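Holo prediction — adenosine monophosphate.
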Amino acid sequence: MSFGSLGLCDELLKAVAEQGYTKPSPIQVDAIPVVLSQCDVMAVAHTGTGKTAGFTLPMVQLLSGGPIPKAQCIRALVITPTRELAAQVADSVQNYSRHMNIRSAAVFGGVRIEPQIAQLQGGLDVLVATPGRLIDLYNQQAINFDQLEILVLDEADRMLDLGFIDDILRIQMLLPIKRQTLMFSATFSKEIKSLAKGMLNHPVLIEVTAANSIVETITQKLYPVVKEYKGDLLTYLIKKNTWRQVLVFSRTKQGADSLVVLLKNAGISADSIHANRTQHARTLALDGFKNGTIVALVATDIASRGIDINQLPCVVNFDLPYVAEDYVHRIGRTGRVGTSGLAVSLFSEDESKQLQSIERVIGHKLEREIIPGFAPSEKLLATSPYDDDEYGNFEADSKPGRRGRGGSSSNRKRKN
Ligand code: AMP
């Protein structure tokens, strides 16, 4: 299957070729023709599947050659849960529409509203927005939805997680009833189904499962480790494997900050992105990570959501996520369309429950690897949280010589 056979115009085919994409991903094959036929779409796909191009390319094509947006009017609205994702989607829109006459912009909180009001003044074909700032702009009468033709809800599941449901419903009330609506979500939960029911009109359901998109291209490893040694183990892994770019997930903002200090003390350039940091600090951190001046970017789930870094080689779960589906989202940052990636999880004794549900969700046991000096107690090593009956106990899978390492770990000096 080629991009050419999906019904895209020459300007878009040229832009896609310039991006270096040789063939469409499964979600693009499914979604592009359906969106072009102006049907509503409910797509179950997460970041890393190529979903952004899946809706952006046909959306831009539908908009091209249409009416010029009047002052403050927008013709397509893409709502995203986070600022970073809004900026990235807007970049994609700009990239893909570079050979067309499409005006687009992103608006989100944490930065001054006045330039955004000024941008809207001239009218836009595509606006990418986070819910809060969009409502602020509406309340300030800076935006008009009369000309709206297309609404896209990106990462709808995350919008619900973040408590944006009321904002979304409020925005929906402001939009023309006659419009095309596309909803993207990583999960198809009861809540998403009910949101879809209220917002979509006879949608075509498109599903790209984790199994055929992400997980196959990613090598996943699990390092059982004494909790207090996690920071040292991460330092060790980064240095030993000479990782140049690693996205590290921390469960808490405070945890992210202390980890950055620990890594810096060990001579590894590191920075963090989380909700307590200013938008400016987050952008600087992300830029540094993208241009290679920062080796380790430590992020919380919310802040990291949707971060798009091409061919990210390595993702580390410093803490296992509470919600098993977040594991799939997290490792989706690596092994993007057509590239391979490494996802490493540091697993301490108190995380058995999380590991159990992750292994249920991904449907298999994660490959354990023991690092001498960091190993946990025999008790943890013997734990096979996924399913003892099916997989046998952990002892049978592990490497020879492991037993001695529990002892050596207790001799290690802890860093403060
Ligand atoms: P997304 O799932 O939209 O976040 O896209 C994930 C990554 O895949 C982005 O870096 C895109 O630039 C890239 N991508 C999207 N479509 C393709 C494609 N057909 N071939 C190769 N890479 C792609």
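READOUT: DSSP finds 20 helices and 14 strands in the chain.
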